Batch of 2 targets.
Target 1
Amino acid sequence: MSTGGRRSSASGDKRESILHAAWALIRHYGFAKTTIDDIARKALVGKGTVYLYFRSKTDIMLALTDLTNERISREVERIASGPGAAEERIKACVSHRIMTLYDLVRRYPHSEDVIASMLPEIVKRLDGYVRRHGQVLAQIVAQGCAAGTLECQDPAATGQLLASLFEFMTPPYYRFKSRSALEKFVDQVADLVLRGLQPRPHGPDGADVRPTTVQKGRRA
């Protein structure tokens, strides 16, 4: 291995050690109480070394946000490109993101505190992952439209709308006391939304043909 390769490997190892140390401390003590000095001691590096890789504690949180969301995004993309009907893949993608984030928060005692005090930079970074999620969902919607199992005029806009809608079921927005309750709710909402995307019957003139509901007690 070349000297440059060894330097690159060592550099990557130090950065990873800093991130592992930071996450261990933040999930145990919370973001506000964790300091750069604490992280340096935990990572067995000097404080100056931490600043070689990260300008601030916020930068460290951004890197941790990327680690989690990149992993989720890769799995969502794998699900999206796999077999199965478009509707089932949409549900699986949505469920994976929501339930993975739920499990992450529940696993660590201070995760909710970290999320509740999210800095604008972190919110902005998360918005980018929501858009990426929407692009994946848009591709599946387009495939469903091409197969005739879904119907919409703008798959790209629909995918983004779906991603934004279901993001409100992720921390800190969720209000569910159990994993099963959240999972059931996600499944029910996904079914409801997907029913709205099912092809509608059309008459000879192209008009939408759907049965009308007559309210009881009302005369025509």
Note: Confidence is low (pLDDT under 50) at residues 211-220.
Target 2
Amino acid sequence: MISARMLILSGMGSMIKLVRLQEEHLEKVMAWRVSPEVTQYMITDIEYNMDKQYEWFNRVIKDDTCRYWVIFYQNTSIGLINLADINYAHRRCSAGYYIGEQDYRQIGAMVPPYLYNYVFKTMKFRKIYGEVLAGNKNILYIHKMHGFREVGVYRDHIFKGGLFYDVVLIELLAESWLSQAKYQRYVTEFP
């Protein structure tokens, strides 16, 4: 198992690589997405259906409002990270990610800073926003650690597994992110 400390000490930029989502990744991404460890925290649930996965892929590769990358750590694919709702006029987008490989989940908090630096430094956006299931305490903590603030809650907003769940609305502004010197070295290529 890889620890976040090991990632920090080993020079993160050389170990994290992002590859634009390709057709060859779809089966692994589908397996991650429907695994109970991942899907329990997702706002939407999907079934394991490769035909629908290929339809989704063919839609998103043509959609200028979203981008998907597979996360590699030391040449092992470990998860997926994305931007959605990309709005150049208002300089904002939403973002999401998951670590699909169980042995790499402990470094999950170290991955988003690469994306945030890309959004705020390269794309020159003003805001990243998102929605998180209220029960996903770990990701809410990670977002808070990265400088996100909670801006609201949708009560009983998602119905999953016979239960209603609240959804926490979050946002991260560029000045809040860029003022945190400790994350500014998290840079990698975004093809």
Note: The mean pLDDT is 92.
